[in-house]
Amino acid sequence: MARARAGLLEVGLPDDDEFLARYPAPALRRAMVQRVALAIAFLPRPKVLVLDEPPPAWTVTTQGMVLQNRG
């Protein structure tokens, strides 16, 4: 659970119990769902990450966060 919370913080999301209890729809916006998926993908610290959605399809906030921290 500590790693999950750290992963959420790493992608700019809250790590509190209330946020963790939310269901994806309708409680989370598209950008939040994208960042949760990235947090899950980043947890094992992969050297290569293959994505099925190109970065231009992400929200601008998500693009910036990923490219700045992972590029």
Characterization of the model:
There is one protein chain. With about 70 residues, the protein is mostly helical. Helices cover about 60% and strands about 0% of the residues. It contains five helices and no strands. It has helices at about 1-10, 15-20, 25, 30-40, 60-70. The model has no long low-confidence stretch (mean pLDDT about 80).
Distance between the termini: 26 Å
Shape type? globular
Helix percent band: 55-70%
The number of helical segments is 5
Largest sheet report = none
Are there runs of 5+ residues with pLDDT below 50, and where? none
The succession of helices and strands, N to C, reads HHHHH
Task: Please supply descriptive tags for the structure shown above.
71 residues; globular
Short précis:
The protein is mostly helical and 71 residues long. It has five helices and no strands.
Secondary structure topology:
Layout lengths: L1 H9 L6 H4 L3 H4 L2 H13 L17 H11 L1
